[in-house]
Amino acid sequence: MSDKGKRVRNRWSVFKENHTIGFVLVAVIVFNIVFIGFSALLISFLPENEERSVFELIKLAFTLMVNPSGRYVYSDATLSLYLTTIVVLLGMISLTGGTVGLITSFIQSILQKTANSSTKLKMKDHIVVLNYNNKVPSMIVDYCFDDMDSTYVVILSDYDKHQILDDIGNMYKSKGSKKKFKNIIVRDGDPMSEIDLDKINIKDAQTVLIMTPKDMAEDDKHKDKDFYLSKLFMFTNWYLNNVKKENDGYTPNIVVETSNGNMEQLVESYNADSEHNTSSVFVNYNQIMGYLIAITSVMPSLYGVLQQLFSFEGVELYINEYDGDSTIEEDLMYNQSVIPLYDMEGKRIYVAEDEEEIGRRSKDADTIKKIIAQYKNPEKIIEPNCIFDKQEIIIVGINEKLPYILANLIGFKQKYENAGLHVILASTADEEDILKEYYEDEQYAPILMPDKYNYIKVNDIFNPMPELGEATAEKAETIVFLSEDNVADECIDAKPLIYWTDLKSAFRKNDKVDVMVEILDSQNRSIIQSKNNDQTLVSDDFLGHLYAQLGKNPERLGVLIDMITAVGDDDEESDEEAAPDAGDFLCLKAGTLLGLKETVEYKSKRELIMSIYWMTGGRVLPLGLIKKFGDDEQALAYIFARTNGGKDGLDNTDLLNMTDDDNKNDSENIVLNPEDELVFFLKTEEE
């Protein structure tokens, strides 16, 4: 079936499911139109109607069906008697009270089946979500920025259907989204039921996302949670492989979320002992969020960049096969509006706003040659200077992400000797035993430095000033407030928000400190006023964006993890999805990175990208530029990829703004100041 045919069938299935009364109304109208058309065809064979137009025939047929004794003039021909009798009977069938009653019964049957989720969906290449939790609404809203005409989502869960739809609606409101993703079907059912899986046509899905159920996500019994998810994965895998033969050998990809590595080990063992070959990806969300928090605590400006790359809004990462004829450098010079990063097993990783732009080469060869001649052979190759401003980090609170935060910071410190990172942990008195365990664990010694520093015990969460006082706030360069695991809905985010509220006045006295508050519920974002660099790290938002990406292409997981990971190769040996260590995504001031002493102007993004690329011997590949406007230094603008429309015909010199248009640079050129932060891909030095 063609792509257009799939879209039409999927769209019809969504309309039938979500607008049942409209579907029945359309069916009744079509039913009557068919009868009228057939009646018009019948009376067209009569001699007295040979000269009549199609419109006249339809009018006569309708008149005869509605009022057999009306104005229609019957002929004496036997054929006329038979055909007009049939037309009258069709009218009686279509319009009589008995038929109306039959249609009413038919409508009630359809409505009841839809309400009970008992109809079978005729969809193909859709994304199936098994179970429901708070990350799903963010995923659905993120698809507003993708190609909505080719994206269809079916949620199968025993959670209340109307509550799911309300949660998704609230997410639109909280984000102020003007667009809504309508290609979604929510079904009541059991994800571990063959009948329910068959009804959502899971065998023809593009990807199956197995989520932790909402009630179980708040349960601290990890063993039960992992066993349930493992069982559901094995059941889904068995079901898909069982129907593979009748599906021409096709099986969807499976993405399973987990809070730790236990479930992954169980499922890997299952796969090793079976002949099932479904492509499976496991998402340890505590690990991913831990890595993310770690990297943004060192480079806070990277937070907005990663938001874009993890989301379909703005730019994202794409993995495309390539023929090997063009090098990264050639692709970078001649590709019109994307940035190639590196190669991975016969595929090339790109940053782009639109996948269709990949491979579209610029035709303005003369301009490209001028740029190459101007920048390709610099007088001196500059060695990138990776010195990071943030060294003292205080982490307040303990959750399951903390081990991954510390591991990533250790890796970062070992990789970049100039980082000089040090972390102080702080939490309440009831968690002092856990704090001691971290400080006594030798693997965390490089970052915690227990011989020089100690943890901070807070005796009263509502009055943390005596322990986390002004002296600590003045010394710290980044403060991270972590969310609390396994709490009821009404208490989600309470602990970090209480900490932040009581301590923010102390931190305000140090205008260089970056304050980061991790929250789980995006609706709590509005509580924190973004002043003085305060940032909210919304875990469910980031993970929702990630699942949206994986729903389209699970292969992106390795690349996305590699973007935020600085741990050594030894730690990644067991992760089959990890991308090769091709380089790191970093964010540094242009003056620090390049030794820039004064302002430099570039006529286009291409000039900025290519000049810095060649100036650093191909090691620094700029992806974006963060400029700060105004006295509060809060207005940020990013350059990502290259877009059409610039004066040179190759790219646009305007910044792709995250803020109001008033904050645009007035100059037609891109002005790079020493204090501007470059977002770049630092390529690993080849041995």
Structure description:
Helix 12 (285-298) packs across helix 16 (402-415). The protein is of the alpha/beta class and 687 residues long. The two termini are 49 Å apart. A six-stranded parallel beta sheet has the order 3-2-1-4-5-6, with helices on both faces. The chain has a six-stranded parallel beta sheet with strand order 12-11-10-13-14-15, sandwiched between helices. 41% of the residues lie in helices and 16% in strands. Strand 13, helix 20 (494-508) and strand 14 form a beta-alpha-beta unit.
Dominant shape: globular
- What is the tally of helical segments? 24
Q: What strand line-up does the widest sheet have?
A: 3-2-1-4-5-6
Strand content: 15-25%
Helix content percent band: 40-55%
* β-strand number: 22
Give the class from helix and strand content and strand pairing. Answer: alpha/beta
The N- to C-terminal Cα distance equals: 49 Å
Rg result: 31 Å
| Mean of pLDDT | 77
> Major beta sheet, specifics?
6 strands, parallel
Oligomer classification:
single chain
Which regions are unreliable across 5 or more consecutive residues at pLDDT < 50? 569-579, 644-650, 652-666
Structure at a glance:
The protein has 687 residues and is an alpha/beta fold.
Task: Sum up the structure in keywords.
687 residues, alpha/beta, six-stranded parallel β-sheet, 24 helices, 16% strand, globular
